[in-house]
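G., before I forget:
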Amino acid sequence: EIVLTQSPGTLSLSPGEGATLSCRASQSVGTSNLAWYQQKPGQAPRLLIYGASNRATGIPDRFSGSGSGTDFTLTISRLEPEDFAVYYCQHYGSSPLYTFGQGTKLEIK
Amino acid sequence: HLQLQESGPGLVKPSETLSLTCTVSGGSISSSTYYWGWIRQPPGKGLEWIGSIYYSGSTYYNPSLKSRVTISVDTSKNQFSLKLSSVTAADTAVYYCARSPSRYLDSSGYSIDIWGQGTMVTVSS
């Protein structure tokens, strides 16, 4: 089973700053199988990035994903107030079919 | 556009069976392109995939829950359902139904692209 470890657990930044969120897999995974989600309080997660680097429909271009092998990154170039949320990485595999990281909380400094 | 809506009891007693239904609107559950699944999130914690089903009835379960989980599909009602047996307080969570592709799609990869709003289920006597 693939284990995803996200860091940091909490990231405190100000609007306008850039954010870098990390997701490390316990073994090498295909880039096609890695996604990122944003979740705000009381809401379902929303797909941001799929295939490690492809923005989902309607996602602003300040969000970008990169990485390969075991190390993946979600970058938010200029934080907007609405970007403060919890972010999860997710892997599509075989068993289990879907595995999530534990999440990174992006909070306003 | 396609929407998912969970329904079911918000309170379940310990040792009993949790039962939830997800109704799909704006599209067909019989699509060969997608899995239909359940994901849960305990209060203040992260996301856990429970299992998924294909329109044909093929199922895929999280090994950690497999012995207690049954997911079924009713194509005539455009619904799929979750049963989780022998629940304990540790099963208290928001339960989401969701759609994900069964093959790589240019529009969403292998990711979970549509989620229901979620329903809170509390296990308590």
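Chain B has no helices and eleven strands. The longest strand of chain B covers residues 93-101.

More on Monday.
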